[in-house]
Task: inverse folding
């Protein structure tokens, strides 16, 4: 009905209906009225700025958070659907609203991509803005933002959760451990600071904050920071943890809910200390960690699920003079300056991404590709035959693969931006144009970033109260011999689990599924689940025959043996479509039906 109204009504009626929508939204929040207003604006001449002003006025004057959220959602849809250039100054006061909900951050991104002046405080909206601007520039074959010509570390400061960590939003820690994405590098020097805000009644729980090396993450991420030889931490219950041991470290008074505790690190003199609401606790001490390795902020906590430890890497409250926190570095020219690198089309970047990912599946690291390592050149040139636009670029440079280096850096930077913006991905799905741009950005990502984005999106959308989904597996059906490929797929454990979970969003559940064996009354998330997962792996993976000393083909023809890589044992197989003699193929070139099967 809404779509038809926007099409069939005369302009005079649309103007009156739009005014009625604004009057209604001023009184009560309504999703239907918001959608109608958003659909009418592009069809009514000169209505855009008037509508923006009316909606912004309602959002600023209402005392209802529910109504404000509805208005902000409508504004986002209006901007996303509009092809006109609006007067963005109308929305300037709205950008200062606190708290900055996902809806407000989404609106800020839309304003910034249209040239508006926005003051960002966190990495996610900045990175999403730049990613969308890169996609738009590629689509129009225009120069990309200058910042993507180099690593975008200063723009992507964020918290990286360790395994089994529960977060609330981008900066709230409930259970587990997080690491800052940026480090204090002793080789570069400097003074660094970050802080945590203690939740109400938070001191009845465990909160640790300090510094650690990558070894702490790789070897001891399941322990709190300060519990090993690669990290040091202050337990806010007045204990300093150094080299796995503990010693008393008393603040001037007991730390309470609402207090701000800071961590100070001076790598020039290799010393550290902590502060309470801006006042230093105790004396400075030497950092008992390697003096040549980068040190990352680490925070570990276990608080009540209703509470949140706010970890502030940037925009801190008590950063001392001469110290730097990890505030996202956005200047007036961040979104304005353009790259001197010759622009290329979106199709070129898509082919370059596929080419780089193909090389990664052959065991070639991205650092080798970007660094000009001659060892991979022969394989790289062989793969170029599949990508005409990339091959033409190399040919225009007299056959030099170095011509691809700046464009590979663009993809690397774009991958980092997308990874930092992943927490906002779900908030733009209701915006047709913005969601389509995000989908095109995803096609450009390098493999590591694709998996990282998937993980962050799943974690941000998780329903921690949902019960595990119960899937049934019929072992007798799975053991029946079949010669038909489709029957094998359907009756296998893989096929049964796929059929059971395909319409269930199990990834939103903290415990994704439990297994029921057909004919059995037992339900187990330990032994039975492990048994089924082991059988599932045997169906998909090659096995080693000790008698013949050869690998034997798996039951399911989803993958084929890969002899030319030390990283992947198997590659996707085209056999379900093209028969048993089909050659192994790159996943990039699989047809859609085969991708769905895989």
Result:
């Amino acid at each position: 009905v809404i779509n038809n109204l926007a099409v069939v009504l005369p302009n005079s009626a649309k103007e009156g209906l739009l005014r009625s929508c604004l009057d209604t939204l001023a009184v009560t929040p309504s999703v239907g009225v918001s959608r109608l207003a958003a659909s009418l604006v592009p069809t009514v001449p000169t209505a855009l700025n008037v509508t923006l002003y009316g909606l912004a006025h309602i959002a600023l004057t209402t005392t209802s958070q529910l109504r404000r959220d509805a208005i902000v959602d409508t504004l986002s849809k209006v901007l996303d659907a509009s092809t006109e250039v609006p007067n963005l100054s109308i929305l300037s006061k709205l950008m200062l609203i606190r708290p900055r909900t996902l809806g407000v951050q989404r609106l800020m991104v839309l304003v910034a991509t249209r040239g508006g002046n926005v003051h960002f405080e966190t990495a996610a909206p900045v990175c999403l803005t730049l990613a969308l601007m890169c996609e738009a520039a590629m689509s129009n074959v225009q120069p990309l933002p200058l910042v993507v010509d180099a690593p975008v570390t200063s723009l992507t400061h964020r918290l990286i959760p360790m395994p089994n960590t529960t977060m609330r939003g981008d900066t709230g820690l409930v259970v587990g451990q997080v690491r800052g994405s940026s480090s204090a590098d002793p080789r570069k020097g400097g003074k660094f600071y970050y802080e945590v805000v203690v939740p109400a009644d938070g001191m009845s729980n465990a909160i640790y904050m300090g510094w650690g090396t990558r070894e702490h993450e790789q070897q001891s991420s399941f322990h709190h920071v300060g519990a090993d030889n690669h990290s040091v931490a202050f337990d806010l219950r007045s204990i300093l943890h150094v080299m796995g041991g503990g010693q008393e470290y008393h603040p001037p008074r007991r730390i309470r809910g609402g207090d701000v505790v800071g961590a100070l690190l001076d790598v020039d003199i290799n010393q550290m200390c902590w502060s309470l609401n801006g006042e230093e606790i105790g004396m400075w001490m030497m950092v008992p960690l390697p003096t040549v390795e980068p040190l990352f902020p680490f925070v570990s906590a276990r608080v009540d699920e209703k509470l949140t430890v706010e970890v502030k890497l940037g925009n801190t409250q008590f950063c001392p003079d001469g110290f730097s926190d990890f505030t996202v570095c956005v200047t007036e020219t961040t979104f304005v300056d353009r790259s001197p690198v010759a622009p290329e089309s979106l199709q070129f970047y898509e082919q370059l991404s596929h080419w780089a990912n193909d090389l990664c599946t052959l065991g070639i690291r991205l650092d080798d590709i970007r660094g000009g390592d001659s060892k991979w050149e022969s394989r790289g040139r062989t793969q170029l035959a599949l990508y005409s636009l990339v091959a033409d670029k190399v040919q225009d440079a007299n056959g030099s693969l170095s011509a691809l280096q700046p464009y590979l850096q663009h993809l690397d930077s774009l991958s980092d931006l997308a990874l930092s913006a992943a927490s906002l991905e779900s908030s733009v799905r209701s915006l047709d144009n913005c969601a389509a741009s995000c989908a095109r950005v995803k096609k450009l990502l390098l493999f590591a970033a694709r998996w990282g984005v998937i993980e962050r999106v799943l974690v941000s959308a998780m329903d921690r109260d949902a019960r595990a989904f119960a899937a049934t597996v019929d072992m007798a059906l799975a053991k029946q011999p079949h010669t038909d490929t489709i029957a094998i797929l359907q009756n296998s454990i893989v096929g049964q689990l796929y059929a059971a979970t395909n319409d269930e969003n199990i990834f939103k559940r903290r415990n994704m599924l439990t297994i029921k064996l057909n004919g059995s009354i037992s339900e187990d998330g330990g032994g039975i689940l492990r048994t089924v997962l082991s059988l599932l792996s045997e169906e998909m993976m090659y096995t080693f025959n000790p008698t013949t000393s050869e690998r034997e083909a798996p039951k399911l023809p989803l993958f084929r043996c890969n002899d030319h890589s030390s990283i992947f044992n198997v590659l996707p197989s085209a056999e379900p479509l093209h028969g048993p003699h089909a050659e192994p193929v790159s996943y990039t070139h699989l047809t859609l039906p085969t991708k769905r099967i895989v």
Remarks:
- The two ends are 40 Å apart (CA to CA).
- Confidence is low (pLDDT under 50) at residues 582-598.
